[in-house]
Amino acid sequence: MPALEALVRSSHRVVAVYTQPDRPAGRGQQLAASAVKQCAVRHGLPVEQPATLRESAAVELLQRWAPDVMIVAAYGLLLPQSILQTPRLGCINIHASLLPRWRGAAPIQRAIAAGDTQTGVTIMQMEAGLDTGPMLLTRAVPIEARETAASLHDRLATLGADALLVALEEIAQGTAKPRTQPADGVTYATKLRKEEAAIDWSQPAAQIDRQIRAFDPWPVAETRLHGQQLRVWQAMPVDATASRAPGEVLATSAAGIDVSTGEGVLRLTRVQSAGRKAMSAAEFLKAHRLDGAVLGS
Prior knowledge:
Elements: H1 2-9, E1 17-18, E2 23-25, E3 30-32, H2 35-42, E4 47-48, H3 56-65, E5 70-72, H4 81-84, E6 91-95, E7 103-104, H5 107-113, E8 118-125, E9 135-142, H6 149-173, E10 188-189, H7 205-214, E11 222-225, E12 228-238, E13 249-253, E14 256-260, E15 265-273, E16 279-280, H8 281-287
Parallel strand pairs: 1-4, 5-6, 7-10
Antiparallel strand pairs: 2-3, 6-8, 8-9, 11-12, 12-15, 13-14, 14-15, 15-16
Helix pairs in contact: 1-6, 5-7
């Protein structure tokens, strides 16, 4: 959405906004508009919501809009070649990584989970391959020590919007210099799966910590406590020795719940039991005794 807001404020004219169809959301499963659609409506922009872009009708509609360039940011649908070649100057993608590292659907989460210390955005010309197109512009930022996917997403969204305007100006002036992506350093950020949320306590505390931060806000790392789901929203490695089997609770205090891992100790500081709201570990411990508890079973 920051990219669309930036475009609206710029000298460029947005002729139409494409977003996916409204989806059921919330407990009532009522149809809800995407944030992109809500932004477009606020600015009085035409909105198109095709279920697919592979039908001739979708191509014909886009052709009628006669765009010079199309900007794509986390659209969620593959663009066939017929769509890619419709805009006069092609399609430009705002990708949330420093390509060719983390091509694919979940670059922000995979970067955090892998322990990367730096990431950024790439403004890229789109082609048929998965995030393989020539790069127009890159902007790098450090990944902070306690970064979550949510906080990094917001930072990169703002950075991407600013970078997009620079790239568009270069395209308009004919000064853009597309660069072929390096052949070395290619990695793929596969789509997140719900089953990845399960914490494996035999892994090092530092790795579990990265998993928890990478999966905030979705799918949210989780474990089992007395057979019931326990989601873990926040945690941090502590300077202590894992003296018991992985998953065993070592100590509890107002500071959190200390759990033994395959390497080191992880302190859980914000958790959520099934059907409840997320709360601090201190609040959780008021209603739950964890003496001798083993997480993950």
